[in-house]
Amino acid sequence: MRFDGKVALVSGAGSGIGRATALGFAARGAKVVVADIDAAKVEAVVGEVTAAGGIAAGIAADAASPAGIDAMIGGAVQVFGGLDILHNNAFGQPALPAGQSRLALTADIDEKVWLHTIELGLTGVFRATRRAIPELLKRGGGAIVNTASISGLFADYAIGAYNAAKAGVINLTRVTAIEYARRGIRVNCVCPGAIDTPLLRPSMALPGFADGTLGAIPMGRLGRPEEMANVVLFLASDLASYVTGAAIVADGGLTAQTGLPNRLSDG
């Protein structure tokens, strides 16, 4: 896979999947816009790209705000002259009211947490997509890859806002794909399972969570950010020229099973 002459924008590129994807695009010839709300992380990733001989520009911006979206898309066009690939990856944990756990049944979810999660996890993807499409069309088309989740395909106990946001991303991906398929824009999403990123690590520290999670994954381990980046890179590349509207699951086999106990025994 090569992206020579292409301009790729990655949001949430300061760590995890976004960082790995930004490095992957740059290593394969793309000019990369590294966007993240954390300016120090942006600077660090841009430094990694340039140290490896790649080309990158950094933009510190909030992907949950219209102004932040304008800064990212507009910055890509201003610095590199256009945009060919958008990876909507930004997501973060909202601040919680005092005493509230991140795990909450639907009736107990704080409305501010719900609104923030939807704003960043879904509305931010919509805003970036809407803002990017005219720029992609100017270049004759392009590719959008959204980071969704297996939590957008199936239910998790007590994280309803996250489930709803990621489900919305998956169907927004499909809608946008069919709307722009004949205009040269492909739109897909990757649905990661449990990936070793800063977002997951606090949960892995909870009593019993790590053992339960790893025990449920047929491959017996967390995914690596680079493994998710490889899926994103494929979907953005010409190798996926006939792929649009797809939600690609990459979860170590977690959702390939029914969840029922293993029926094999020694007896």
From TrEMBL:
Q: Which Pfam families match?
A: adh_short_C2 (PF13561)
Q: CDD domains from the entry?
A: SDR_c
Task: Spell out the InterPro entries in the cross-references.
Answer: NAD(P)-bd_dom_sf, Sc_DH/Rdtase_CS, SDR_fam
Q: Name one GO molecular function term.
A: oxidoreductase activity
Give the keywords, sorted: Oxidoreductase
Q: Which domain of life is it from?
A: Bacteria
Family label: Belongs to the short-chain dehydrogenases/reductases (SDR) family.
Spell out the protein name for this chain.
SDR family oxidoreductase
Species this chain originates from: Vineibacter terrae
